């Protein structure tokens, strides 16, 4: 007697189970689709602008994406979830301002971590809301309109996301970040990996270095007049030669202080403002636009067309690719590194360098003009015109120095950015720049002295070396004096 009712009820249970399975399938599909479509949130961590993104994938990964260079990936958790942070922008002027104001490194990092935790919490709330929307949409698609059912499904969707993210958080392994994988352009791998290795973990040290640099520059200004005196004449012109900043914001602060401390009239930058010339890097040194003096820029092999285009928009910057420019009584020829026009190349071969040198020499010859200063990034570009131009400026080697050849005074500013991220290591080269002093002689400017300033970032000392240029009728003689300070 009981068998028949049970048999009669089986079709009902089958329909109920089928409806339930269909509902669960619809809910999961909607949840997966909505999380993929709307699982993104923009977040600002002080100077850093990021996009946090949720996506599906197995095994669970965390990714740092720096377009267009590539991605750093690590298997950090269980669950079919990929969490990505895409770096959209770095406000280096704000970062520099924050670091200069840091008094306690632990407090700074704690505030930074609090901002990260807050953004991650908001991101989790957004994902839960997306889950709730998926639950509501599922109920509506199935024709259900009762408030209680809508509320229960929305809650179920939110709890599903919360459970999923709980698994991610409980299984998250920070140690996996010590074994990252890189995917992207091969030549960008060292830059990205050094950014991870030496970036945020070295910010407190970087802050201390900025303060040290400021103090050292004040000492330089106080002692510079104890060097070999120069004849003070009306119309003295001071030209600051910088090079190879390589994305280091401290370099711009150094340039600003030297401009103010020495009364610089003109800045000539012989290139490598960036490391890989990407769009991200193109905006890093926008504070150059506020230095208050004319800034002549000669692109180096690390400066891409995007970087050059950005600099052309700055009101005080004159980009010198293949150009002769007259300013402050000087005629200056600027010649870009040939690699600057081809982002796929960082280093040119000997044949290409020789061809570039021949092209420069031909352009100088055909101009028929008297050039006071030739500015190039790589000295090899000026190999055929040494002795034909009074002053040649270059960088590229990261080794500051002054020498002569055939009557040309050849000045290498070294690396004003201490080789960029490498400036945070103990074996990095010093911050360096050159200050050229010109006096009017018979109505024309003539170089009378060059000061090479070096700032040693981790050793608390500076050096300033002055070379006085004496050019009597019979030739060129040089006098060299120096002073070092702790």
How do the strands and helices of this protein lay out in sequence?
Blueprint: H1 3-38, E1 40-45, E2 48-56, E3 61-66, E4 70-74, E5 81-90, H2 92-100, H3 105-141, H4 147-170, E6 181-184, H5 189-198, H6 203-223, E7 237-242, H7 249-262, E8 266-269, H8 279-282, E9 294-297, H9 305-312, E10 317-319, E11 322-327, E12 330-335, H10 350-367, E13 373-376, E14 391-394, E15 401-405, E16 408-412, E17 431-441, E18 444-456, E19 461-470, E20 477-485
Parallel strand pairs: 3-5, 7-8, 8-9, 9-10, 12-13, 13-14, 14-16
Antiparallel strand pairs: 1-2, 2-5, 3-4, 4-6, 7-17, 11-12, 15-16, 17-18, 18-19, 19-20
Distance between the termini: 104 Å
CATH architecture of the largest domain: 4-Layer Sandwich
Strand content: 25-35%
Number of strands: 20
Radius of gyration: 31 Å
Q: Which segments are poorly predicted (pLDDT under 50) over 5 or more consecutive residues?
A: 196-203, 472-486
Q: What spatial form do the alpha-carbon principal axes imply?
A: elongated
Number of helical runs? 10
Q: How many structural domains?
A: 2
Report what the structure shows:
This protein is α/β, with parallel strands linked by helices. It folds into 2 domains: 12-184, no CATH class; 226-485, Metallo-dependent phosphatases (Purple Acid Phosphatase, chain A, domain 2), CATH 3.60.21. Helix content is 37%, strand content 27%. It has helices spanning 3-38, 92-100, 105-141, 147-170, 189-198, 203-223, 249-262, 279-282, 305-312, 350-367; strands at residues 40-45, 48-56, 61-66, 70-74, 81-90, 181-184, 237-242, 266-269, 294-297, 317-319, 322-327, 330-335, 373-376, 391-394, 401-405, 408-412, 431-441, 444-456, 461-470, 477-485. Helix 1 crosses helix 3, helix 3 runs antiparallel to helix 4 (147-170) and helix 6 runs parallel beside helix 7. The longest helix is centred in the first third of the chain and has 37 residues, at 105-141.
């Amino acid at each position: 007697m009981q068998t028949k009712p049970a048999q009669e009820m089986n079709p009902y249970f089958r329909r109920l189970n089928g409806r339930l399975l269909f509902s669960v399938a619809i809910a999961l599909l909607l949840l997966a689709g909505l999380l993929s479509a709307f699982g993104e949130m923009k977040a600002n961590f002080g100077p850093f602008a990021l996009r946090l993104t949720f996506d599906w994938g197995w095994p669970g990964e965390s990714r740092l994406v720096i377009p267009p260079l590539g991605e750093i990936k690590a298997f950090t958790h269980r669950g079919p979830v990929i969490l990505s942070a895409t770096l959209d922008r770095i406000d280096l002027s704000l970062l520099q301002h924050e670091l200069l104001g840091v008094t306690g490194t632990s407090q700074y990092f704690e505030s930074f971590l609090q901002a990260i935790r807050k953004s991650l919490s908001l991101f989790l709330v957004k994902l839960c809301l997306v889950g709730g929307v998926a639950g509501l949409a599922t109920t509506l698609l199935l024709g259900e309109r009762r408030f209680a059912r809508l509320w229960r499904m929305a809650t179920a969707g939110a709890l599903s996301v919360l459970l999923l993210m709980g698994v991610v958080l409980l299984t998250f392994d920070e140690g996996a970040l010590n074994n990252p994988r890189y995917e992207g352009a091969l030549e960008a791998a060292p830059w990205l990996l050094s950014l991870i290795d030496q970036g945020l973990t070295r910010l407190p040290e970087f802050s201390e270095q900025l303060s040290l640099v400021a103090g050292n520059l004040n000492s330089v200004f106080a002692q510079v007049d104890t060097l070999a005196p120069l004849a003070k004449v009306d119309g003295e012109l001071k030209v600051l030669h910088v090079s190879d900043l390589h994305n280091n914001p401290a370099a711009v602060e150094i340039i600003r202080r030297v401009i103010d401390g020495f009364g610089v009239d003109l800045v000539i930058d012989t290139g490598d403002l960036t490391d890989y010339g990407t769009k991200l890097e193109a905006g890093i040194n926008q504070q150059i636009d506020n230095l208050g003096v004319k800034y002549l820029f000669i692109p180096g092999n690390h400066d891409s067309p995007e970087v050059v285009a950005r600099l052309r928009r700055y009101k005080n910057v004159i980009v010198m690719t293949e150009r002769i420019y007259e300013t402050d009584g000087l005629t200056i020829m600027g010649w870009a590194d040939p690699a600057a026009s081809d982002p796929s190349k960082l280093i040119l071969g000997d044949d290409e360098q020789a061809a570039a040198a021949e092209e420069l020499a031909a352009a100088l010859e055909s101009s028929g003009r008297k050039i006071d200063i030739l500015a190039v990034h790589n000295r090899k570009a000026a190999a055929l015109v040494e002795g034909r131009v009074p002053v040649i400026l270059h960088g590229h080697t990261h080794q500051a120095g002054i020498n002569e050849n055939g009557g040309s005074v050849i000045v290498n500013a070294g690396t004003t950015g201490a080789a960029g991220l490498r400036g945070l290591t103990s074996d990095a080269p010093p911050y360096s720049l050159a200050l050229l002093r010109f006096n009017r002689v018979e109505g024309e400017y003539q170089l009378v002295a060059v000061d090479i300033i070096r700032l040693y970032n981790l050793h608390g000392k500076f050096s300033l070396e002055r070379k006085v240029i004496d050019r009597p009728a019979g030739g060129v003689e040089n006098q060299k004096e120096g002073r070092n300070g702790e």
